[in-house]
From TrEMBL:
Forms a 24-polypeptide structural core with octahedral symmetry. Belongs to the 2-oxoacid dehydrogenase family. CDD domains: lipoyl_domain. Residues 79-104, 173-192 are annotated as: Disordered. Its EC number is 2.3.1.-. Its cofactor is (R)-lipoate. Residues 83-99 have a biased composition (Basic and acidic residues). The lineage of its organism: Bacteria, Pseudomonadati, Bacteroidota, Flavobacteriia, Flavobacteriales. This is Dihydrolipoamide acetyltransferase component of pyruvate dehydrogenase complex. Residues 3-78 form the Lipoyl-binding domain. Residues 177-192 have a biased composition (Polar residues). Residues 130-170 form the Peripheral subunit-binding (PSBD) domain. The keyword Transferase applies. Pfam families: 2-oxoacid_dh, Biotin_lipoyl, E3_binding.
Amino acid sequence: MAKIELKLPKMGESVAEATITNWLKEVGDTIEEDEAVLEIATDKVDSEVPSEVDGVLIEKFFEADDVVQVGETIAIIETEGEDSTKKEDQPSVETKETSAEDSANVTAAENIVHQAKETVSQDYSSSERFYSPLVKNIAKQEEISLEELEKISGTGKDARVTKDDILAYVEDKKSTSKTQTAPTPSKPTQKAVNVPVSVNGEDEIIEMSRMGKMISHHMMNSVQTSAHVQSFIEVDVTKIWNWRKKVKNDFEKREGEKITFTPIFMEAIAKAIKDFPLINISLDGDKIIKRKNINLGMAAALPDGNLIVPVIKNADQLNLRGLAKQVNDLAGRARGGKLKPDDTQGGTYTVTNVGTFGSIMGTPIINQPQVAILALGAIRKVPAVIETSEGDFIGIRYKMFLSHSYDHRVVNGALGGQFVQRVAQYLENFDDQQTL
C-alpha cells in the first residue's frame, strides 16, 4: 500500500492561500480519481480539490475554516502502488508525526502550522469554542489571552473566528494602544459606536453569506481608500444596435453561442486604455504602478444576488470574435459556479453593466487595487436631434450613458473625462460593415 499526499494546488500567481469550507469525504471513505475531496474558497471563488488517485482517505490535517497555504499537504490518501510521500523535495507523512526537533527540516511555513497543531492548542484547550491552528498560533504570537480570544466576534461558519477576524482584532488593539499612549490634546478621540438595531417578533434575521461578507469588506475598503469622482457621457449606439441585429442569427448558427453587446464595449474600452495608459494603473503608497497588460474585469451577477468579477486577460490582443468567446465563456462559468481562482485574478480595469437591470446610469465603486471602473447603462430608444448637411431633424436613436468612476488621488478630471469620451467616440464610430 502507498500513501499519497493531497496538496492544496496552485490557483493563480496571486493566490497564496485558501480557506477550507467543507470536507466532502471523511476518513475511511473510498475516493476515485478526479473525485472532489473537499471544497475551498479564496477571496473571490469557491472551488473543489479533486483526488489524483483512487484510494482511501486515511488522514486529514485541517478542518473546516482552517486557512491552508498553496502546496501544503491537507490529507493523505492510501492507494495501491509505490509510496509517493517520501520525496527529497517535500516532507514525508512521517515528518508530520515526529517530534518538533525532527520538523526543523520542514519549510518555515509548514513548521508554523505544525507548531500550531502540536503546541498552541494546549494553551487554549480549556475553551469550549473551536479555534483553528492558525488562529491559535496568531493568538499566541500576539500574546492574546484566552479571555480576549473568547470575546472576538467570529465571521466564519457557526461564528468561528477566522484569520481575518483575529488580525483585525490585533490591528484594532494596536491602534487603541497608540491612541491611549499619545492622545491628541486639542481633540478627544472618539470611538466608533455600533448603533443597536431593534428587532421585533415579525422580523426575519438573515445571516450574510461568506461571499457577501467579503464583498462588503472589499467595498467599504475601497470607499475608505479612494477619492471617488464620476464623469458621465451619453453615447449614440444606433450603428452598433443595427449591426448586432443583422449578424446575431448567423453568428449563433455558426458558433453555437450568442453575440452580445458586452464584447463590443470591451473592445472600445481596451482601445481607449491603449490611448490613455495612465487609467491602467494601481497606487502603492506614493508609487504609481503602470500595468503592462490590459486585463478587463467584467462584473457578473450570481444567482444568489452576489457579484463576481472574472477577468479577460490581454483584452487588447483579442479581436471582436475572440472577445465574444471570452465573454460568453466567463459569464457562463460564473453563473454555473465553475470559475477557477485564476479567472478572477490580475484585473487592471473593471466594467459593470448596470443596464442589465434597467438602470440608465450608476456610480460604481472602484475595484481595488485598480483606480477606475466604467458602468454601462441601459440602451434606450429615444428621440434625438440628427445633424445632416441639409439641416437638423428629429429622429429615433438608440442611446446609453457611460458612468466613469475614478480615483481622484491619481486620476484628475481631465484624464477621467477624456478617457470616457474616447470610449464613446470608438462606440459611435463603430465599423458596421465588418463581419465576424
